[in-house]
Amino acid sequence: MKLKPRVHLRYPLIGVLTTSALAEWMCVSKLHCIPTPADGAPDISSGRFTHWIMAQTNSGGQGTNGVADESPNMIVYRKMEEVIARMQDEKNGIPIRTVKSFLTKIPSVFSGSEIVQWMIKNLDIEDQVESLHLGTLMAAHGYFFPISDHVLTLKDDGTFYRFQTPYFWPSNCWEPENTDYAVYLCKRTMQNKARLELADYEAESLARLQRAFARKWEFIFMQAEAQAKVDKKRDKIERKILDSQERAFWDVHRPVPGCVNTTEVDIKKSSRMKNPHKTRKSVYGLQNDIRTHSPTHTPAPEAKQPSEEELQEQITYWQLQLDRHRLKMSKVAESLLAYTEQYIEYDPFLTPSDPSNPWISDDATLWELEASKEPGQQRVKRWAFGIDEVLKDPVGREQFLKFLESEFSSENLRFWLAVQELKKRPIREVPTRVQEIWQEFLAPGAPSAINVDSKSYGKTTQNVKDPGRYAFEDAQEHIYKLMKSDSYSRFIRSSAYQELLQAKKKKSKNLF
């Protein structure tokens, strides 16, 4: 049965559908019978019935031939759902079992390695990496999910996964609002279960939503309370499965920070689907529809077969395209906002400096502090933003070097600083300085030998034969990565840095 309401209704909150609300919806929709589970609707006593009503209302009864079904996302959803149907086949699908653990049972699960092996066997996939990639895409869209992790990805190990119910599939055109999310998070806080505890980002979202919907929070709380009461009446195993499926649904539509939101629609693809003729291009510069006269009966010229060199160039080109680093605009905007928020207190255009700017006042205190070896708290705090902040601050480099000397591992930083200084030397002094750096840090039996990989060492050995300012570029980059991943993190966690961060006027020369 398809619901075709004449008026588009959208209830502001998802909860238990009241009798009056249902009667109103049926009256406006000219619907004379209540949908039943036989029609694909959940139990009317559950909060998920309203979800189903809203999904049917939003679809407008378009059916399988509607415009929405031809969207780029819908095409992907249909292909994924075909694979999911094969995975759930009783004979040739993935075996679903109940796992017994200490004092509890984990119902309806399968392992990540079973998914990978099934794909390799049934989808004509030879590469395990490709199988993992395809499985991760399907998990990111919410068709199956890890039972104990908010990050929707596939791991080739014994991690347990569970299939999502078709009711929560993205092909149902869900567009949940923030009020729906607020009801869900509020309901989670009412259930005293360890598996239902809010993650840090969920707790922050709940606090933010509570401030945004302060006026209607009492109503949201009532909706959540009603849903929690209905859930308590369910069987324990059924409740556990439904809770995990609902959590996975929100992990798709409100993903963990840093994860890609797969529900976003690519505006370029949508534009091509709506206006295919406007975006059609001819490979050879000839339009298909430019001929207005009858065609002549001359034989068409044979298509030119690409040569082996041309095919090899195409292969090289597409391999380079695969290696390109691409980011969604939403991810770029998120990173830009985070960077702006982090550095806002250091931007004098946005935050007045303290002390005042010497260029617009007669106070030179700011210059004195910058030249001083007694860094202020704000200056030390900036060192924790990244290793680049430490290396570009003279006082930061000095403190970092003292810390490394205390751990007898200062040769990496001294080498990096020596290479930086080499790039500023006059050209006539470069060959001599290159040999000095080589003898001190890289030559066999060097007094301050550094640890570089064989590839960087080989390139540096060749570069030293024709010394230049950038002879040590590869070795310097390798050492930089080592310091960033190891030495810098230990420096930031050290008690000396924490003391320096908390002290406002404490001298730093005796800290290490």
Automatic annotation (TrEMBL):
Q: Which InterPro entries match?
A: DEP_dom (IPR000591), G-protein_gamma-like_dom (IPR015898), GGL_sf (IPR036284), RGS (IPR016137), RGS6/7/9/11 (IPR047016), RGS6/7/9/11_DHEX_sf (IPR047017), RGS_DHEX (IPR040759), RGS_sf (IPR036305)
Q: Is Cell membrane set as a keyword in this record? A: yes
Main location per the UniProt record: membrane
Would you say which domain of life the source belongs to?
Answer: Eukaryota
Single Gene Ontology BP term? negative regulation of signal transduction
User: What GO CC terms are in its UniProt record?
Assistant: cytosol; neuron projection; plasma membrane
Q: Which Pfam families match?
A: DEP, G-gamma, RGS, RGS_DHEX
Q: How does it sit in the membrane?
A: Peripheral membrane protein
Alphabetically sorted, this entry's keywords are: Cell membrane, Cytoplasm, Membrane, Signal, Signal transduction inhibitor
Q: Signal peptide location in the record?
A: 1-23
Compartments where found: Cell membrane; Cytoplasm, Cytosol; Membrane
Domain (DEP) spans: 90-165
Q: Could you give a GO molecular-function term held by this entry?
A: GTPase activator activity
Domain named RGS: residues = 386-501
Put simply, this protein is called Regulator of G protein signaling 7
The source organism is: Gasterosteus aculeatus aculeatus
